[in-house]
Amino acid sequence: MVKFSIIIPIYNVERYLETCVNSILTQTYSDYEVILVDDGSPDRCGELCDHYAESDSRVKVVHKVNGGLSSARNAGLDIAMGEYVIFVDSDDYWDDTMALEHIQKNLAESNADLLVFPAKRFYEDENRFTNILNLEVERDKIRNENISQAVGYLLQNNIYRAAAWNKVVKKSIVDVHNMRFKVGYLSEDMDWCGDLLLYCSKFDFYENPFYVYRQQRKGSITSGKAEKLVSDKIYMCQKGYKKGINLADKNKSKSLLSYYAYEYAVTLGVSSAVKDKDTLREVRNLKVLLDYDICNKVKQVNRMKKVIGYELTRKALCLFVKIKR
């Protein structure tokens, strides 16, 4: 068994693939496998994947009919042999060759089920980087043996988000609970990361934002699908809310609902893309989630809602997101 299985789903990223894969293969720590999942890519990605497998024994390749990001990630999970799994989106990359080495040292100390790390956004058109997490993280609070306190700290400070690519997860957790990504949704990370909060009991953090998240590249999977993205996010929030309120463990219930509260607040900010009245009604019906405001940002949105009402709050958030972009 290798220490890490690094799964890279690939579709239509010929321009970026070498940067991504090379940033993994040049890591100073070498006990890992790289699983390249060619999701029926129409460009030369499949050929490039085979070249990597021929030149490096750590690389495995899966060629499959196009099924989307979730399907590709699941195909990687099906053959992963590592103690831990890590996902990397194929248009992103790591900018620190010692990242895995440091992560391995952290995990050797903590034996965590899940380790979170920060990232930076890269705006390609402007050649500009910004850190996603601007916070001095207290790692001891995340490694706290009191699970509810550890998760509370992660959520309160917006450290734990619906992204599969900034997490290192024990493969045994994934296997025991048969965790797979839901196919056909643009918000595939939300449900999966929510379930991790329920199944993991030890957490850790690595502070260096080595993961470079390429922001809104042309031809990306989510580009031009804003309305479906909002609709899918609301479906996931509805599902998460029902799961959360029915949990017998009140601490886990509070944690899960607080996690979805943040995702709901984010969804409000992009809801201007929705024209369908039924979908807008579903968005409004979930406003109860804002009452689970462990996260400081959710707390601010909830206060605004109580002062100026739901609809004005939604419009204000949409305007804020538009200006910020």
UniProtKB/TrEMBL annotation:
<dbReference type="GO" id="GO:0016758">
    <property type="term" value="F:hexosyltransferase activity"/>
</dbReference>
<dbReference type="Pfam" id="PF00535">
    <property type="entry name" value="Glycos_transf_2"/>
</dbReference>
<dbReference type="InterPro" id="IPR029044">
    <property type="entry name" value="Nucleotide-diphossugar_trans"/>
</dbReference>
<dbReference type="InterPro" id="IPR001173">
    <property type="entry name" value="Glyco_trans_2-like"/>
</dbReference>
<protein>
    <recommendedName>
        <fullName>Glycosyltransferase 2-like domain-containing protein</fullName>
    </recommendedName>
</protein>
<feature type="domain" description="Glycosyltransferase 2-like">
    <location>
        <begin position="5"/>
        <end position="152"/>
    </location>
</feature>
